[in-house]
Amino acid sequence: MCAASCQTVVSGISQRSARIAYNGLFAPSLIVSWILREVAAFLMEKIPAILMIGVKSQKGPRDGVHYGGWMMKSFVGASCVYCLRLVVWQFNNRERVGTSYGAWTLANGKFT
Fold first, then answer.
1. What separation in angstroms does the CA of 1 have from each of 12, 23, 104?
2. What is the C-alpha to C-alpha distance for residues 21 and 23, in angstroms, rounded to an integer?
């Protein structure tokens, strides 16, 4: 009788503390993401303008950075798209990624 009542009390406490912990982690992450979104919006508007300060004509040295370098910009853009697709693929294939990572770490002696 005591064991059953103790299990009931413990499960109630653990469920409640899990909810409290979840809310305790969710609220700060929500605030941080809102702050970062506002900062990123500001920086995305201002960085191109700051980079062009002092450029008076198209013959300026920084004008080439702004309008040129399309090969590097294309490479960086393609790399970002590839990384984003990889993250989405890993999220959608969690089981396969976890299994292969576990097999790889055991084969290389990481967790032995």
1. 17, 34, 47
2. 5
Q: What are phi and psi of 109, to 5 degrees?
A: 75, 25
Tell me the DSSP string of 37-94: HHHHHHHHHHHHHHHTTT--STTSHHHHHHH--HHHHHHHHHHHHHHHHHHHHHHHTH
**The tokens of 4 are what?**
């059953």
By the 10 Å C-beta count (0-12 exposed, 13-18 middle, 19+ buried), 52 is classed as middle
Over residues 39-69, the pLDDT tens digits come to: 888 888 888 777 777 767 777 676 777 777 8
Going from the C-alpha of 97 to that of each of 43, 79, 90, 106, the distances in angstroms are 35, 21, 6, 14
Write down the domain spans for the chain.
1-53, 69-112
What is the pTM (predicted TM-score) of this model?
0.40
